[in-house]
Amino acid sequence: MIDHVSIGVRDLDAATRFYELVLGALGLTKLESRPATVGFGKTYPEFWINLRTEMTALLPTNGAHVCFRTRAQEQVDAFHAAALQAGGASDGAPGLRPHDGEGGYYAAFIRDADGNRVEAVCFTSDK
Q1: pTM value?
Q2: Is residue 11 part of a domain?
Q3: What's the domain count of the chain?
Q4: Would residue 59 count as lying in a domain?
Q5: Closest by alpha carbon to 8, among 115, 88, 111, 87?
Q6: pLDDT per position as a tens digit, 53-107
Q7: Rounded to whole angstroms, what are the CA distances from 111 to 3, 51, 59?
Q8: Cβ-based neighbours of 126, under 8 Å, separated by 6 or more
Q9: Beta bridge partners of 5
Q10: Taking a C-beta distance cutoff of 8 angstroms, is the pair 67, 79 a contact?
């Protein structure tokens, strides 16, 4: 039902470099670049970062929450590692989250420099 999602960032160049690494671990690439926005996806831009110069520094608990579904735990692990290597902060190491329901909810959470919380998840019962 959702076609695409966008989040605000204060530094488009830095955020582009960050998300190229982080989303690359999930098989997404930069597909479109405009003066104030960059779109990432597999076949079309599904995830956009938009320059918001009026944004002030966000607290680590502010920002959007976006979750990407993956096929394997290894992708969740790679996503988390890439985010940390690119300067993001861990907001939940990779692991099973039994409190999030049945189906083997395996997820990792990171925060970007603007306080956005990004998650990668797979369901181990899908195997």
Answers
A1: 0.91
A2: yes
A3: 1
A4: no
A5: 115
A6: 887 765 556 678 999 999 999 999 999 999 999 999 999 999 999 887 778 999 9
A7: 23, 17, 11
A8: 71, 103, 104
A9: 47
A10: no
The tokens of 27 are what?
């098989």
Domain housing 100: 5-54+64-126
Helix axes 73-85, 12-24, angle to 10 degrees: 150
Pairing of strands 45-51, 5-9: parallel
Cα(68)–Cα(114) distance, rounded to whole angstroms?
18
* Beta-strand relationship, 65-69 and 117-123: parallel
Closest Cα to residue 4, out of 87, 64, 78, 76?
Answer: 64
| pLDDT, tens digit, 9 for 90 and up, residues 13-35 | 999 999 999 999 999 999 999 99
Question: CB atoms < 10 A from the CB of 54, how many?
Answer: 7
Q: Which two tokens stand for residue 97?
A: 């989250």
